[in-house]
Design a protein that fits this description.
By secondary structure, the chain is an alpha+beta fold. Helix content is 13%, strand content 31%. The protein has a single domain, classed as Hemopexin-like domain (Hemopexin, 4 Propeller), CATH 2.110.10.10.
């Protein structure tokens, strides 16, 4: 995989993280900055990389997930909660090591993905749906799980990344683009 996690920025740009480096698509081609410099309140072990998911919230804050913990940028330096505390409706198997997460920009709910299953926090305790049932436009290999990340757009569509391919739910059934096509400003080693 060429990137670790991605998120949709409230401004319409996208953030990509690889290891401890961050690239935001409106910074210019190939520009990266240290994750800890951009988000100085991150817990030290989050700033060094190994993140499972990142999501941008409609308030402008960001949520970072690593293992069984989550940090929001508006919580203060180093503050974390467990996934189970933050999202009490999560099924037990989702309380550590999720594959992807997104914040719904309008409803304020959160979607967490593990394997080929999705839990949305306003569905009720433990409720899950198959990715392919929830997002019928996904290519079959995306619906089967193993996603690298997902994000929600302010306009209501969703984006999914798997390897070097991207799918947006408003592109039509199974349509994909490469990371390089979709995000030409990414550093070349990340495409």
């Amino acid at each position: 995989m060429s990137i670790d996690v991605a998120y949709a920025h409230i401004s319409g740009s996208y953030g990509f993280i690889k290891g401890d480096q961050l690239h935001i698509t409106d910074w210019g081609s190939g520009v990266v900055k240290a994750l800890g410099d951009m988000f100085p309140g991150l817990p030290a072990d989050f700033a060094t990389g190994g993140l499972d998911a990142v999501y941008g919230h409609k308030s402008g804050s960001y949520g970072f997930i690593k293992g069984d913990r989550v940090h929001h940028t508006d919580w203060g330096n180093g503050a974390t909660k467990t996934l189970a505390e933050m999202f009490p409706s999560l099924p037990k198997r989702f309380t550590s090591g999720v594959d992807a997460a997104y914040a719904h920009k309008i409803a304020g709910s959160y979607g967490l993905i593990k394997g080929d299953q999705l839990h949305v926090t306003d569905w009720g305790a433990g409720a899950v749906k198959a990715l392919g049932d929830m997002f019928s436009s996904l290519p079959a290999d995306f619906a089967a799980g193993g996603l690298d990340d997902a994000y929600a757009h302010i306009v209501g569509s969703y984006g999914f990344i798997k390897g070097d391919r991207v799918h947006h739910t408003d592109w039509g059934n199974g349509a994909t683009k490469t990371l390089a096509e979709m995000f030409p400003s990414l550093p070349s080693a990340w495409k």
